[in-house]
Amino acid sequence: MTDLTFAPSPGAAPASRMIRAQTAYELRTLLRNGEQLLLTLIIPVALLILFSAAPLLDVGAGKRVDFLTPGVLALAVMSTAFTGQAIGTGFERRYGVLKRLGATPLPRSGLIAAKTLTVVAVEVLQAIVLCVVAFALGWSPHGNPATVILLLIVGTAAFSGFGLLMAGTLRAEATLAAANLVYLLLLVLGGVIFPLTKFSGGVRSVLELLPISALADGLRQVLQHGAGFPVRDLVILAVWAVLGLALAARFFSWE
To answer: Does this entry carry the keyword Ion transport (predicted)?
Structure first.
């Protein structure tokens, strides 16, 4: 009798291998996208160099680069976890990519894990590039690196939740416009480049509750002023993270 045993045995690859393959695909796609590179690397680096080298604004006592670097790091997190992820996922949803991936052995949890790993990998690259540029400009960081990492993780969760919520509920074109508009507004109003002390008391109190403001301020408290644990900023970010991820899980539509 003929042996019909297949070698290797047919079937889905292990989940870890599928996630690695999808992560590699997501990274290649992102790095080939000129708009994404502009958002994630070129704009943050350009802002850091421009405002650190030229006295275009008053950032208070101390070196400009010490004030600007934490804010630009926060902007980099927002550009990847929120703006880039919202736009990329929105167009994947529109073109049916997510629907087709749903028909593959890759589970939805695996797709989310791959996207999360992609965001983290890009953020690591951003942090390395920005820190190298900042050190070249004379940056003198302080504080506990573990607290910085915690702030970046919670901030990433906050921005990711709302990025996925936007991508999973709006049309791709609307997501593109809305994500870029939010990016520009928070760049100006979130304490990234311009100190929130420039705003009046009532307006400043509201702006301080924004996730970008909390992340920039928390990083600044640690890296510029050597604070131990910015509880208020972490609480604000945690609230945004829980709210955004809960809404995304509830309303995200894959088709």
So the answer is: no
